[in-house]
Design a protein that fits this description.
- This protein has two domains: 79 residues, no CATH class; 107 residues, no CATH class.
- It is α+β, with helices and mostly antiparallel strands.
- The radius of gyration is 26 Å and the shape is elongated.
């Protein structure tokens, strides 16, 4: 009990909660790992209110039976389980992106003809390797388009600017395509391997 007015069940690991209040209007809390949708049920003089975080949006549901509360509690447990099992995509991306941390800065000079030819050859090799990852066709096409863009930019960017552009482009396309963790890690490793001898070292 809190404030002798409502019962609050809190999941300590996340800060998410299930709160029951008699004959009152309950407002949600922003506590927890991050902002999440909340289920708010508002009371009338004869009903109790329930507020849930995380949850799904429900408008003005009246709670007139205990069975309704237990039903909502079961739903809350399901939503909580889904939140707990949802992968931390940003944390995972940060881990995978560490392969792009460089031991030296790229020089602020243009690519010469030999280097441009080497870049294009590495992109062709990378396209073949990516095709072997068994990605969906649309993902392969998006990656090929990104490689073509990067190869084109190399003709007009300095090595320093190109490397910054290329790393941002690769990370962005990997996130946009919603590759699974194994696919993302394998893809980043291929990119690092393909260019480690030229720039990504």
């Amino acid at each position: 009990m809190e404030d002798n007015s409502y019962l609050k069940i809190k999941h300590l690991a996340t800060g998410f909660y299930f709160k029951i209040a008699p004959n009152t209007v309950i407002e949600g809390s922003a506590n927890g790992r991050r902002e999440a949708p909340r289920l708010n049920t508002y009371s009338t003089p004869n009903y109790s209110g329930v507020v849930i975080q995380p949850g799904k949006e429900v408008h003005h549901a009246n709670i007139d039976k205990w069975e309704t509360v237990t039903h909502l509690f079961s739903k809350w447990l399901l939503w909580l389980k889904q939140e707990e099992e949802e992968p931390d995509l940003w944390g995972e991306l940060e881990t995978n992106a560490r392969i792009f941390y460089f031991s030296q800065a790229a020089p602020d000079t243009m690519f010469d003809h030999e280097e441009l030819a080497l870049l294009k050859g590495q992109f062709k090799k990378l396209e073949r390797q990516v095709a072997a990852l068994n990605l969906p066709l649309h993902a392969v096409q998006e990656l090929q388009a990104a490689f073509e863009e990067a190869a084109l930019k190399a003709e007009s960017f300095t090595k320093k600017d190109w490397k910054n552009h290329f790393v941002g482009l690769i990370i962005n396309v990997a996130v946009t395509l919603a590759l699974n963790p194994e696919q993302r890690h394998a893809f980043f490793a291929l990119v690092k391997s393909a260019f480690s001898g030229l720039l990504l070292n």
